[in-house]
Amino acid sequence: HVEIVNIAGLEARVKDHMSNEKGAFGYIRGGAEDEYTMKENTAAFNKAKIMPRVLQGIDHADLSTNLWDIALKTPIIESPSAAQGLAHANGEKDTAKGVAAAGSIFSMSTYGSTSLEDGAAAAPDAPQFFQLYMSKDDKFNEFLINKAVKAGVKAIVLTVDSTLGGYREEDVINKFQFPLPMPNLAAYSEGDGEGKGIGEIYAAAKQGIVPSDIQKIKDMSGLPVIVKGIQSPDDADLAIEFGADGIWVSNHGGRQLDGAPASFDILPDIADRVDKRVPVIFDSGVRRGEHVFKALASGADLVAVGRPIIYGLNLGGAQGVTDVIEHLNMELSITMQLAGTKTINDVKNTDLYY
Ligand code: FNR
Predict the structure, then answer these.
(1) Is the CB of 79 under 6 A from ligand 1?
(2) Which residue spans adopt a coiled-coil conformation according to this UniProt entry (predicted)?
């Protein structure tokens, strides 16, 4: 087990533990430019307060929930992240196992260090998504999606906030290049990403993503498509109008547009606009069970974490990933009980105090 007092404390431990690959820690930790948005992501949760309710007869909290017909032990899921081989030799295979043990959802990134088939085989009975960075080449999109469908994923997460990489200065200073191949790319003919920088990797992706791409990916896959990287209510509307089956509110952990609002700040407006037409998934900056509570109370159905999962993977492999989710579960459970809420539905129906 990885001993965890709080999630924030993991970062320094990972920094010491991860001296193996040049710039790997900086790539994982970093945000764009001045990291204003990255810092705001976590700080913004402090603007909302949770009014404790007592005398509610609460003697335990039940964290179970579901997305469509997928039963989950927790509302906390894993955010897709690239190149997990940087953090651990077993990479995505261990993340998939660790997330499965926590009864949650793993999403394989297009830029994973593991093939999506191997990621799926590592946790064959657990729900998984495939995160797609669309290519300019629709044959490649189709090729990847066919593999994902065969591997049994439950949805495609279409990331739309990364038509190019944000300007991440730590990567510039470190001249960071992916030291490991990306088997999902290698399986086709685009090259495997090894030795390339982030700019070069994104350059092969489709820059001009348009709303009709959502339906295109739905038609190719026959699966629900969740659109990830939504930051404005108008875009949420547009995505739903063009077929999105889920809205994933995210600013990519502050790694893309510095100066964008904290993801939590814009969540209530987006949730209002979505108005329960499709599920809302939220990420960026979540480091506490209390943050999960506040996101659920602000309209999220599920809450995803990015860097904390990678840190757990680095420090303890699959078990470390499970430990991170279970630590957040523990904090969420305490928060729920002290707030006078017993179920995830109760949390969703809580009014925050501003
Ligand atoms: C990411 N993220 C990301 N998102 C995505 O859709 N595809 C990807 O390949 C990646 N890769 C990636 C790598 C690393 C190292 C990080 C830290 C993040 C973004 C990720 O899914 C998520 O939106 C953020 O990580 C959420 O913010 P927190 O929880 O890290 O603050």
Answers:
(1) yes
(2) none
**With the C-alpha atoms ordered 14, 167, 257, 140, is the resulting torsion angle positive or negative?**
negative
The C-alpha atoms of residue 106 and residue 129 are separated, in whole angstroms, by 6
User: What is the spatial distance between Cα 284 and Cα 298, in angstroms, rounded to a whole number?
Assistant: 14
Q: Is 284 in the pocket of ligand 1 (CB under 6 A)?
A: yes
Which atom of ligand 1 is nearest the CA belonging to 285? 31
CB atoms within 10 A of CB 1: 10
- Residues recognised as catalytic: 252
Nearest CA to ligand 1 atom 25: 306
The closest residue, in CA terms, to atom 12 on ligand 1 is 81
How far is it, in rounded angstroms, from Cα 48 to Cα 276? 22
For ligand 1, say whether the CB of 314 is within 6 Å of any of its atoms. no
Cα-flanking dihedrals φ and ψ of residue 116, to 5°? Answer: -65, -30
Residue 306 C-alpha to ligand 1 middle, in angstroms? Answer: 5
pLDDT averaged over 10-residue windows placed end to end, the chain, 354 residues:
98 89 93 98 98 96 98 98 97 98 98 97 97 95 97 98 94 94 82 85 89 98 98 98 98 98 98 98 98 98 98 98 98 98 98 96
CB-ligand 1 contact for 341 (6 Å cutoff): no
Q: What is the pTM of this model?
A: 0.98
